[in-house]
Amino acid sequence: AAPDMDPEAECSVDIILVGSSEQSSTPSPEPRRDLIAYEVKGNQRAIEELCICCGSFQVRRQHPLFEGGMCSPCKDKFRDYFFLYDEDGYQSYCCICCAGQTLLICENPDCTRCYCFECVDTLVGPGTSGKVQAMSNWVCFLCLPSPRNGLLQRRRKWRERLKAFYDQDPESPLEMYKTVPVWKREPVRVLSLFGDIRKELTGLGFLESVSGSGKLKYLDDVTNVVRRDVEEWGPFDLVYGCTPPLRQPCDHPPGWYLFQFHRVLQYARPRPSGSQPFFWMFVDNLMLTEDDRVIATRFLETDPVTILDTCGRAVRNAVHVWSNIPAMRSRHSAQVPPEELAQLAQDRQRARAAALGPATLVKKCFLPLREYFKYFQPNSLPL
Ligand SMILES: [Zn+2]
Ligand SMILES: [Zn+2]
Ligand SMILES: [Zn+2]
Questions:
Q1: How far apart (Å, rounded) are the C-alpha atoms in residues 189 and 215?
Q2: Which residues of 185-195 are buried (b: 16+ CB within 10 A; e: fewer)?
Q3: DSSP one-letter string for 87-124
Q4: Which residue of 105, 112, 113, 319 has the fewest C-beta atoms within 10 A of its own C-beta?
């Protein structure tokens, strides 16, 4: 799960936040961190008064998963990176500090967490990372029965804390659903409109092709669909919709897909009282007009992110995505000028990459759903 930071990496899909020039703050590793153990054991300082991610005394928040504080930059970093996953299905960064180059991976098959050497050596004890590496079947600090390991103490009700951490953050306007413990996770039930995401979800391990666990209902036309239909087919955990892939003859203006998605989404939503996780995603293949996008943001009550398919420096394809899946707003980076996207939308008519359809660009965005739904070993389909 080592993050690929190489800017010259050949081809990648990246997520940027539209309408924000905010730079992600990345504090350099602090030498003071070595002093955490000394401050707690020698100076009798409470660990809640120290940032367990960097050793700073400027504590702003409590760490949601483990006892200890967090300074402001480390809190922002955690918010932006905690729900990012790599293709292998593991989290991209350390679940304590949300950084780290080399990561220890939990070998509990249902766990996706990683830990950096520095966190483990600083908080659990010097030399721990080496011992963990030498172990054949290591289970992590959130999965181990014992809540305390050195200075690292798992919080009680850390899932509630994680939800509260995101809900308190003004940068994450939509309420987050509490993550689901492994033994309670059920196969996901999906309603897929105008574009079929079965292949993507099967490849990611959310649907099982053999036994048919997990279900997906695909509709390419919803003109005559009424509330009763959706209630009969449902309940659903994820509603996906998109503007149609290029070169697919479409019978309606692009805005129609947005309105129909919003209409059907209302039918599929669980009753407001429930705390059952319910996710949705609408993807625009750069077909909506600027006015349509403003309407989408108002209807869906969240700003879109732009996901780029880049090859070296060149942007080959892009989509706008509105969703309530955690981490959709993560990975802030440079903005793409609207003119460039407009140009891309035109050029794309000729480009081959664009013909793949919008779902291929957003595949990775489904990975945080691993915290909520049953996971099947994906069969050989590559991501
Ligand atoms: Zn810090
Ligand atoms: Zn770490
Ligand atoms: Zn684990």
A1: 5
A2: bebbbbbbbbb
A3: TTSSBSSBTTTS--SSEEE--STT---EEEHHHIIIII
A4: 105
Closest ligand relative to 55 C-alpha: 1
383 residues of the chain, pLDDT tens digit each: 444 444 444 455 555 444 434 444 555 444 578 788 888 888 889 999 999 999 999 999 999 999 999 999 999 999 988 988 887 788 989 999 998 778 899 998 888 899 999 999 999 999 999 999 999 889 999 999 899 999 999 999 999 999 999 988 877 777 889 999 988 999 999 999 998 999 999 988 898 876 666 799 999 889 999 999 999 998 999 999 999 876 666 678 889 999 999 999 999 999 877 788 999 999 998 889 999 999 999 999 988 988 887 777 777 788 899 999 987 766 544 467 777 777 777 776 655 555 566 777 888 889 999 999 998 876 554 44
Domain boundaries of the chain, sorted by first residue? 33-167, 185-371
CA 105 – ligand 3 centroid, Å = 8
Task: State the distance from the centre of ligand 2 to the C-alpha of 378, rounded, in angstroms.
Answer: 28
**Predicted TM-score of the model (pTM):** 0.82
CATH 1.10.10.10 correct for 185-371: no
- Pairing between strand 69-71 and 59-62? antiparallel
